[in-house]
């Protein structure tokens, strides 16, 4: 019996699921995901739905930021494009929300390309400032086009093959399927020549250009793909929600998405984003439900209103300083420790 | 570097521990119901309480939340009984959504799916309007602090007051009758549904009210002194006789102060959330004699002998709250819960348990309610059209800096501002 895992072909070496534990984890995770609606109540199912939507959006930002190294503070605004596309198509044209979903992604991808234009000339925090401006402009536009501070999404537009998606179980399975497909696609982008080009641009764009990579095209593609993911996530959010409002796509939401990527693991597109979403969304919800009321009860309303932002800011700074590779790197070290134990030296 | 890293890990561990502690509290369900009195048959119902204590309307939201909580505690303590004599214990679940409609929807799902509430005491206009169809589907009675006219035709939405449009038209009709016809400027936050709510109706009713609209001015809900001064200066060129402010007390007070500062000699009338006992101090001497507020409810300072106000003071004493804290906002929170209690008292226990929100809705539509004389008129909902009444109190910031009750006022019946808003949007 050989000691260790040996790969005997290129396909085996490049496979996403390479070790027996991967297959075991896949089967367990798939079983848990399929069984979830029968194991948890509607409330927790809705939380899962929101987390998967944010996972898709965070994957998009992780491609733009983590893989290609292009800072974007306008990702929530891109989600907004997707959400408003779905909501308005359903409301004014009577189009099925699921049918319009790919178009929501394309609309956000096109806007992503526009947002990529400053990245041809600007880097790092100058680029961050440019994307900040885009975020604020789009936020203003959304606040003006919402007829009632929100745009309703008609429930009759939320159907798939005759099944109403207002039923949380049906919506959960739809979003789960979309999230898994998009996560797999994103994992493969990272392994493709495009992904390697993005990493080259991220690490040193001058060197990348010197070896023949079309840097501008790669940057535009990174923004477009990131935008597509954001647009689909926004469109799904419109299907989930009874109505969308500009308050859901503000700068704070963009920073929240940035926090998910930085805390989870920039460059670790699928698992890093998932970890970031789990930590941020769970912590966020719990803080709003417990710590904020506690501080309000003490009369500290100013601190209460900003408590979650203080924690978010602290976490982002802490991870940038202490663990720039995010939680996924911590997990990797833990995994390595157990893999080598008891002969860690 | 290694030492820094250790410190940062330690700090991160503290944050994680806090989050875990919060999680434990969260998963255990947060606040729980008090037990019923011994020996009595008691049923417990869950009710959601959606408030803004930290967001852009927290200047009025904190008082409202206090009033609603006082009412829940007081009536739970005193005893709430259904028509057939069964005691009802209300387990209220409070959530601060910081005036973000997206967050409000998340909390609504939590109320419905996690706690199975049969009623919600709500807050803002955008979130209440957004949820109104869902509320009807879920058959959850929703008593909001948004007096939006659009909610009048939503089957499960109620509030114990005239709508914003009817209130505005009554207030403006009062000004026109007292001070004559004139030019009117409108200051409101154009991206906020609450602020915008009565604007269409005011414009449509203007000529019938004896007013000529001279302009819309975008005053942010979270206005700064500079915003207010800029708007006041812009208004100078239009030279209005009257200014309508459709925001909450902070920005309306800043506008009143700015109008005096720039020498704009117009009378300022504010929406119900834009004026209360704090206004004399917030607006300052420049506004004395020139600012008016609208309210569907009697101010505690004018209602010392009103039975309902006495009840609120009793609730405050019982809960260790100083009487100084009882202002219009506390009254607004209290009456919303009180209306719910009245509805519970009008149904049978079996009906309440089996049909929940639907039974409460029918009770609200079938009865006439008097909340101890606090409201400007008795509350009488018509099925399909939930306009409680049409009268409002007008309060003036007097020349001496004290508030003066000008009495009750109602717009002429041919000026139907609620209908204008429902038909034309707002």
TrEMBL record, chain A:
Record's protein name: ABC transporter permease
Cellular component aspect of the GO annotation: plasma membrane
Gene Ontology MF: a single term: branched-chain amino acid transmembrane transporter activity
DNA repair recorded as keyword: no
Membrane topology reported for the UniProt record: Multi-pass membrane protein
Subcellular location: Cell membrane
Species this protein is from: Aeropyrum camini SY1 = JCM 12091
Keyword terms: Cell membrane, Membrane, Transmembrane, Transmembrane helix
A Pfam cross-reference name: BPD_transp_2
Residue spans crossing the bilayer: 21-40, 46-65, 72-93, 99-118, 170-189, 220-240, 260-279, 286-304, 310-331
Lineage: Archaea, Thermoproteota, Thermoprotei, Desulfurococcales, Desulfurococcaceae
PANTHER family (UniProt xref): ABC TRANSPORTER PERMEASE PROTEIN, HIGH-AFFINITY BRANCHED-CHAIN AMINO ACID TRANSPORT SYSTEM PERMEASE
TrEMBL record, chain B:
Residues annotated as domain Leucine-binding protein: 44-400
Domain of life: Archaea
Annotated Gene3D superfamilies: 3.40.50.2300
Pfam annotation, one family: Peripla_BP_6
UniProt entry tagged with the keyword Transmembrane helix: yes
Protein's name in the database: ABC transporter substrate-binding protein
Classification via SUPFAM superfamilies: Periplasmic binding protein-like I
Organism from which the protein derives: Aeropyrum camini SY1 = JCM 12091
Keywords: Membrane, Signal, Transmembrane, Transmembrane helix
Spans traversing the lipid bilayer: 7-28
Family matches, as InterPro entries: BCAA_transport, Leu-bd, Peripla_BP_I
